[in-house]
């Protein structure tokens, strides 16, 4: 670990992309808060691996879960970097999709990001500094058959990022999102092999991304990128680029 840069919280920090972000931010000198909901074992292992890191367990789909995170960070004196990474999907063609699944995906991917950012944004404003990095997805820009809700929530994250960047700029808080393409994590692990091959055919760099490919962009936006705010950065091996 290099110099102490303050506290960085990664939601869903024990998952595929989240754990890579925790490692990268710890290497960059942050004391990392590893948020998790159900991955107790991996979260604990990661905490043991990263000196100075700490755990926060909370269900982000609930108000009390978000409030708990706020209180924990308040007790530690605030937060410098927030990575809104936790997310989920329930895929189905729209005609067969269920309303209950819609509500669940929206509550984790969108509602929790809105509420956590609202609460922690105010905490950062008191310090007149902060970085917020939202993890969206390439499908928020391209759409994806079978992912009507997921893609909708990710597009919303990009729009939310823009609004927050406008509201928070004068507090010295920079807000950006990263839209990963297809990344090798538990979320994509369950895709049938045939579908994975089809996806890879659409990726100019000829491979799925690794969690570290996203984490290095998170690190850039947390530690450098001093003149970047309100952007969506696409990290997808060339399969899509915003013009
Ligand atoms: P992952 O390993 O499944 O990680 C997602 C994390 O979200 C999990 O660790 C989970 O925590 C947390 N989570 C889910 N529901 C939650 C809830 N109700 N409360 C709190 N935490 C909750 O998947 P990943 O691929 O690393 O995904 C990370 C982010 O990248 C997501 O936002 C995803 O949409 C986005 N993304 C992924 C890809 C990809 O190809 N993998 C592509 C584009 C965007 P627990 O395990 O502790 O329950």
UniProtKB/TrEMBL annotation:
Q: Which Pfam families match?
A: adh_short_C2 (PF13561)
Gene Ontology molecular function, alphabetical: oxidoreductase activity
Alphabetical keyword list: Oxidoreductase
Where the record annotates domain Ketoreductase, the positions are: 6-181
PROSITE patterns attached to this UniProt entry: PROKAR_LIPOPROTEIN (PS51257)
Q: Which residues form a coiled coil?
A: none
* Listed transmembrane segments: none
Give the matching Gene3D superfamilies.
NAD(P)-binding Rossmann-like Domain
Q: Name the PANTHER family on file.
A: 3-OXOACYL-(ACYL-CARRIER-PROTEIN) REDUCTASE (PTHR42879), 3-OXOACYL-[ACYL-CARRIER-PROTEIN] REDUCTASE FABG (PTHR42879:SF2)
Q: Which family does it belong to?
A: Belongs to the short-chain dehydrogenases/reductases (SDR) family.
The name of this protein is Ketoreductase domain-containing protein
- List the source organism: Halobacteriovorax marinus
């Amino acid at each position: 670990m290099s110099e102490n840069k303050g506290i960085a919280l990664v939601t869903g920090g024990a998952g595929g992309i989240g754990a890579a972000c925790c490692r990268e931010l710890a290497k960059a000198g942050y004391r990392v808060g590893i948020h998790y909901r159900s991955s107790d074992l991996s979260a604990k292992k990661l905490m043991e691996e990263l000196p100075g890191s700490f755990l926060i367990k909370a269900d982000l789909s609930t108000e009390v879960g978000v409030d708990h995170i706020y209180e924990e960070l308040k007790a530690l004196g605030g937060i410098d970097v927030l990575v809104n990474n936790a997310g989920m999907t329930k895929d189905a063609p729209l005609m067969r999709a269920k309303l209950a699944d819609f509500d669940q995906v929206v509550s984790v991917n969108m509602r929790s990001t809105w509420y956590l950012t609202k609460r922690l944004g105010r905490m950062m404003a008191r310090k007149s500094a902060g970085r917020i990095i939202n993890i969206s997805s390439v499908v928020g820009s391209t759409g994806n058959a079978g992912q009507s809700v997921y893609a909708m929530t990710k597009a919303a994250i990009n729009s939310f990022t823009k609004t927050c960047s406008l509201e928070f700029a004068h507090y010295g808080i920079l807000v950006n999102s990263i839209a990963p393409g297809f990344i090798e994590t538990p979320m994509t692990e369950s895709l049938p092999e045939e579908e994975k091959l089809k996806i890879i055919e659409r990726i100019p760099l000829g491979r799925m991304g690794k969690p570290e490919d996203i984490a290095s962009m998170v690190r850039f936006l947390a530690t450098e990128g001093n003149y970047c705010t309100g952007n969506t950065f696409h990290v997808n091996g060339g399969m899509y680029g915003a013009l």
